[in-house]
């Protein structure tokens, strides 16, 4: 891998570290046009998507939550 690419990767990584988690996630999901997110609360109980103000739980089927990304 060329040194320039390694420097670019390190720079992106450091930028990610300085960005608050909720802002970083929201930006990535917007970039890839994610509108809905499915959370299996039984399999991944530690995710806690309720902490993100940009997500709205729109349906709940047992342990499966469906979240919509607010505009």
Structure keywords:
71 residues; alpha+beta; three-stranded antiparallel sheet
Write the layout of secondary structure elements.
Blueprint: H1 3-18, H2 21-31, E1 36-40, E2 55-61, E3 64-69
Antiparallel strand pairs: 1-3, 2-3
Task: Describe this protein's structure.
Helix content is 38%, strand content 25%. The longest helix is centred in the first third of the chain and has 16 residues. It is elongated, with a radius of gyration of 16 Å.
In short:
The protein is of the alpha+beta class.
Output mean pLDDT.
91
Residue share in β-strands: 25-35%
Q: Largest sheet, described in full?
A: 3 strands, antiparallel
Which structural class do you get from the secondary structure elements? alpha+beta
Secondary-structure element pattern, one letter each: HHEEE
| Global morphology | elongated
Count, helices? 2
What is the CA-atom radius of gyration, in angstroms?
A: 16 Å
Low confidence ranges: none
Helix content: 25-40%
Number of strands: 3
């Amino acid at each position: 891998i060329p040194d320039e690419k390694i420097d670019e990767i390190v720079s992106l990584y450091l930028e990610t570290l300085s960005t608050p988690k909720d802002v970083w996630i929201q930006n990535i999901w917007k970039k890839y046009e994610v509108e809905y997110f499915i959370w299996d609360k039984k399999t991944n109980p530690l995710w806690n998507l309720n902490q993100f103000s940009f997500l709205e739980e729109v349906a709940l089927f047992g342990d499966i939550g469906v979240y919509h990304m607010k505009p």
